[in-house]
Amino acid sequence: MANSPFDSRSTLTLDDDVLCRDLVTLRDFLRWAASEFHLAGLFHGHGTDSPWDEAVALTLGALHLPWNIDPGVLEARLLPLERARIVGLVRERIASRKPLPYLLGEAFFAGFPFDVDERVLIPRSPIAELIESGFEAWFPEEPPARVLDLCTGSGCIGIATALHLPTCEVDLSDVSADALAVARQNIQRHDLGLRVRAVLSDLFEGLAGQRYDLILSNPPYVDAHDLATMPAEYRHEPALALGAGADGLDVVRRILREARQYLTDDGVLVVEVGNSDRHLEAAFPEVPFVWLDFERGGQGVFALTAAELDAHAASFA
Questions:
Q1: Could you count the other beta carbons within 10 Å of the beta carbon of residue 6?
Q2: Model confidence over 258-282: pLDDT tens digits?
Q3: What is the pLDDT of residues 172-193, one digit of tens each?
Q4: E strand or H helix at 189, and its extent?
Q5: Is 296 exposed, middle or buried (0-12, 13-18, 19+ CB in 10 A)?
Q6: Residue 303's beta-bridge partner residues?
Q7: How many Å apart are CA 61 and CA 219, to the nearest integer?
Q8: In angstroms, what CA-CA distances link 300 with 86, 168, 275, 304, 316?
Q9: What domains can be seen in the chain, in order of their start residue?
């Protein structure tokens, strides 16, 4: 029996000029892009979770359209240049396996847009939900006055905190000068230069004498096994921001050991360790890590108060 024309990716390949001629409306391009992504077997983990979501993000991003557009726009005819841009982005996404936010130069986090490129991780931390709630679990009456975003990358966690809490001051700290260049772009983009600053620092080394009510960190935490088996999309992200030794805790151990002296007495430390949560509990079985739950998914984020860090200082030494 002859093969179906849908059995082979090659039978579906069309000349890009033909595509740009025959695909006309936004709906046409959404349907085509979703089909291409499904056939290519892409990994979705940088802001989308399916070929359809990825197609929506790509087409709307390419056309600079918001997510909540009127559905009637789906029938709009695209200009030739717009058609070519979408086709080019779809082809590059498939061929390079580069995550879509890098292709678009933008990602959204906690409801805000951020500049991103391959100098920084793509924002995706579940800490966004804590930011949106104003950290009310720990600061029910008054928001934190001073916040540190440690290992800041693009600055998304600290900047989103400053945007949601308009009275707080925020320091963004990173060991990578390249990452801080992106963070400064985002400070400028959101006009926060009076309340947010970027500091070059190997964890706390450049922050002598500073005290914070809240320290937030999404540090490198991927263990050696996970790093070696990650999908191709992740290999476009900076290795410095991902891997952290055999158990993923090389950086987290330093944070636990040093954070207390930079917290106020009523301060709180919140750290994301992802899949390395099991390694952390095995390394410090006597520490009562509070693992946070998230409505939109995500795991491996713990919180410890200054008092709890004091109580278990010997464990972290």
A1: 10
A2: 999 999 999 999 999 999 999 999 9
A3: 999 999 999 999 999 999 999 9
A4: helix 177-189
A5: exposed
A6: 270, 290
A7: 28
A8: 36, 26, 6, 13, 19
A9: 9-104 (no CATH), 115-316 (3.40.50.150)
